From TrEMBL, chain A:
Keywords: Cell membrane, Membrane, Transmembrane, Transmembrane helix
Subcellular location: Cell membrane
CDD domains according to UniProt: TM_PBP1_transp_TpRbsC_like
Protein name: ABC transporter permease
Molecular function, one GO term: transmembrane transporter activity
GO cellular-component term (any): plasma membrane
Native organism: Ensifer adhaerens
Transmembrane parts of this sequence: 31-53, 60-82, 88-106, 141-158, 188-209, 267-283
Pfam families: BPD_transp_2
Keyword Membrane: yes
Principal subcellular localisation of the protein: membrane
Membrane topology reported for the UniProt record: Multi-pass membrane protein
From TrEMBL, chain B:
Listed InterPro entries: ABC-Purine-Binding, PnrA-like
Signal sequence segment: 1-23
Coiled coil, from the record: none
Keywords: DNA-binding, Signal
The protein's name: DNA-binding protein
Residues of the ABC transporter substrate-binding protein PnrA-like domain: 27-312
Record GO terms (molecular function): DNA binding
Any GO CC annotation of this UniProt entry: plasma membrane
Pfam families: Bmp
Source superkingdom: Bacteria
Organism ancestry: Bacteria, Pseudomonadati, Pseudomonadota, Alphaproteobacteria, Hyphomicrobiales
Keyword Signal: yes
Length: 306, 356
């Protein structure tokens, strides 16, 4: 295995949870809800996936548990912000803190246990293509899902009728409401999808990335996912570009250090963020396209008149 | 309404008296942790020390702890809260709590503080540390014997003297066996991030190291080593569970004895500020069982350990050169503790540029 291949394999593992969690948040934000609780939902997904895998012995049930946990946990946020119309920013932050605490409690008796790693699924024929095969077709199911989800969400948002309604809710909830779209229900479902994705991303952390459970193991990845949504200007395919760019720079800087190129490591560590900012500036120079993509009702509360 | 308030006030007073009475019976000893007490590494080792303290002196003291306290302004708040809540003796267990500890200690001259691994003290602030580098030296000896390629990977956290000292000791130990031994250093710039530590481990293995050692807190690097079929060393706690066929040994922090000794002095009213730096011989660190290595390597490691304990072997003893080739220690000369505690240079053989 060549060094380039080795680096790319690490990049895929590092980028996958970012892409999945960001994709969920993208759908949530497209419906006009800003959920800053990604980190909390992610770490809940990680603990549920790990615990379920340990109990049942099946990482696939673990993945399912991670998804369900993230989705259920997100509904707490949905209830508070959509039904009780609490402030979205404050509630999202609270969700993150709560998630970090609750996950620590749930996982306490599973600390230090040896995890079961999710095994790759080898796709026949394609897996034998030199270079590309081992990278793209000898991966675990979560990687395949991440790509399929991005394609699916793109189709859903821009090609389906329901997706159009969801975007309408995010752009102008009053108009959507006047047209007879159930704004609150749409947003509940969008938040739930966001939670499920964050949960799946968490499952990737505790089953693939580092098959173990330690408290706070998401270590800030939820926040990076949030930033990626802005980076992508709410367009699903750009998430892959953003997530992989961030992953590639993070991994390359570690290799650069191990290679001993003599650039201060503090600078190298900040490179992923610098690269993201530079790209962000480049793609956002056209203000009009940026504005078109930004959900106009993002973060605004909606109270239907009865 | 007035009655209710009065009732509330008197209840509060009763509770207040009750806790004051309890405080008179038992002294409160408090701990501030940088990580979670179950992190499987650094903080867990301190918490085991705290439990040991409770076991030994539980009839005279009660303990309290705050975990996951970030270094920086939050640490100040956390330490102040402990001081205000009636703690008589407070252990702050991370290098990054140093300035916060000194600052709060000035505000509370009657409270005693003990800060781990720092170098600033005050009339009511003592410092304590462990000579981890003794363990790192032994690891270096083992690594040089076990590595086929003669290159080890070192996952480092932050360029502070403590970490630099560990890297140097490892290299000196390795070069005592194989003068051509090399290490590759990767700075993760974090104490705790399983994913990033795993990424760093993968990068090192992909670049051809066949032994891994770490100065970060989780078992993720050990897992990567196990997966890739190479050997590795554990950090702060015995990590054998994460790599039953991978771990060669681990530096295990055993703070308990120190906590008991100092807390006893505090109870006797004999506490005074000190700067304690104990090593293998005092039992403040121990080596996890030497596993997954042939008997002759094990023997060599045990010999080194015995010599360090007896004082016959001091890891930082010349002839030693700095990384740039300039003379550091002449043959037979040993480094003084001050130089070690402020260490900001590499010795010869480190294939890395020290971040400034």
């Amino acid at each position: 295995m060549g060094i380039v291949e080795a680096i790319l394999l690490s990049v895929i593992t590092a980028a996958t949870p970012l892409v999945i969690a960001a994709l969920g948040e993208l759908v949530t934000e497209r419906s006009g809800v800003l959920n800053l609780g990604v980190e909390g939902m992610m770490v809940m997904g990680a603990v549920c996936a790990f615990v379920a895998t340990q109990i049942t012995g099946s990482p696939y049930l673990g993945i399912l548990a991670g998804i369900v946990c993230g989705a259920v946990f997100s509904q707490l946020f949905a209830f508070l912000t959509l039904t009780l119309v609490a402030n979205q920013v404050a509630t999202g932050l609270a969700l993150t803190l709560l998630g970090l605490g609750v996950s620590g409690m749930l996982g306490e008796s599973f600390l230090g246990m040896q995890g079961i790693k999710l095994q790759p699924i080898v796709i026949p024929v394609l897996a034998d293509i030199p270079f590309i095969g081992p990278l793209l077709f000898r991966q675990d199911i979560i990687f395949y899902l991440s790509i399929a989800l991005v394609a699916g969400v793109h189709w859903f948002l821009f090609r389906s009728r329901v997706g159009l309604k969801l975007r309408a809710v995010g752009d102008s909830h009053a108009s959507a409401h006047a047209l007879g779209v159930n704004v609150i229900r749409t947003r509940y479902l969008a938040v739930m999808f966001g939670g499920a994705c964050a949960g799946l991303a968490g499952a990737q952390l505790s089953l693939v990335y580092t098959p173990q459970w330690v408290e706070n193991m998401s270590a800030g990845r939820g926040w990076i996912a949030l930033a990626l949504v802005v980076f992508s200007s709410w367009r699903p395919w750009r998430l892959i570009a953003g997530g992989y760019l961030f992953g590639a720079v993070s991994i390359s800087q570690l290799h650069a250090q191990a290679f001993g190129i003599g650039i201060p490591s503090q600078f190298l560590s900040s490179l992923p963020y610098l690269a993201t900012i530079v790209v962000l500036i480049l793609i956002s120079h056209n203000r009009r396209t940026t504005l078109i993509n930004t959900p106009a009702s993002l973060g605004k509360p909606f109270v239907p008149d009865r | 309404m007035k009655k209710l308030l009065l009732a509330l006030a008197s209840t509060a007073a009763v509770i207040g008296f009750a806790s004051a009475a309890a405080a008179q019976e038992k002294a409160k000893v408090c701990f501030v942790y940088v990580g979670s007490k179950t992190d499987g590494g650094w903080t867990q080792a301190h918490d085991i020390g705290r439990l040991e303290l409770e076991k030994q002196l539980g009839d005279k003291i009660e303990t309290q702890f705050l975990e996951n306290v970030p270094e920086g302004p939050d640490a100040e708040r956390a330490i102040e809260r402990m001081a205000r809540s009636g703690c008589g003796l407070i252990y702050t267990t991370s290098f990054g709590f140093m300035d916060a500890t000194i600052k709060i200690a000035q505000k509370f001259p009657d409270v005693k503080f003990e800060h781990a691994t720092g170098y600033k003290s005050a009339p009511n602030v003592a410092t304590y540390n462990s000579r981890f580098y003794e363990g790192r030296y032994i690891q270096g000896v083992i690594a040089a014997k076990m590595s086929e390629k003669g290159v080890a990977g070192y996952i480092a956290s932050f360029p502070i003297p403590e970490v630099v000292m560990g890297i140097n000791a490892f290299v000196i130990g390795a070069r005592s066996v194989n003068p051509d031994f090399k290490i590759k250093v990767v700075w993760a710039n974090t104490w705790f991030d399983p994913g990033k530590e795993a990424d760093a481990a993968k990068a090192l293995v992909d670049q051809g190291v066949d032994i891994l050692t770490q100065h970060t807190d989780t078992t993720a690097p050990m897992q990567v080593a196990a997966e890739r079929g190479i050997k590795a060393f554990g950090q702060a706690s015995d990590m054998i569970a994460a790599g039953p066929k991978t771990q060669l040994t681990a530096i295990v922090d055993t703070w308990g004895a120190y906590y008991v000794k100092r807390t006893q002095a505090f109870l006797d009213g004999k506490w005074e500020t000190t700067s304690s730096w104990d090593g293998l011989k005092d039992g403040i660190l121990t080596m996890a069982p030497y596993t997954n290595m042939p008997d002759d390597v094990k023997k060599l490691a045990e010999d080194a350990e015995a010599k360090i304990k007896s004082g016959e072997l001091k890891p930082f003893t010349g002839p030693l050169k700095k990384q740039d080739g300039s003379e550091w220690l002449a043959a037979g000369a040993s480094s003084d503790d001050g130089t070690l505690l402020g260490m900001n240079f590499y010795v010869e053989g480190v294939d890395d540029q020290l971040p400034k």
